[in-house]
Amino acid sequence: MMNQVGLVGRFTRDPVLRTFPGNRVQTNFIVAINRNYRNNEGNVDADFVTCIAWGRLAERVVTYCGKGSLVGVHGRLQTRSFTNKDNIKIYTTEVVADDVRFFILKQPENKGGTPQHNLDVTTDFVLPEQMGKTAVP
Question: What are the angstrom distances between the C-alpha of 13 and each of 16, 62, 69, 80?
């Protein structure tokens, strides 16, 4: 069986590092991903996917990524449940990141605001804002 996910999108907010017992660290972040078609009103909709990173990967994400950073996330889907304060069982699905590639970085607001460009982007990668109008019918 295979459980793999690959996403390219932008951070919706600055990530925050959380520390757990045993010096384990984690961050969760939401990646906004434009759909490649227009809706009935002529607008491009987006999907918002929750991602989780642990350990050194979480530390790197929090250090280098801020709201608006364009990243590629590779990982696996995970579904879990919890009981909320109203005693209702809530199910959630998220991507547990194995790797996060930094394409265009925007520093978190508390670390300056100068965007950094990562030169590791392949030549055939097209940013959403560079797509011509013919790419989205």
Answer: 9, 11, 9, 23
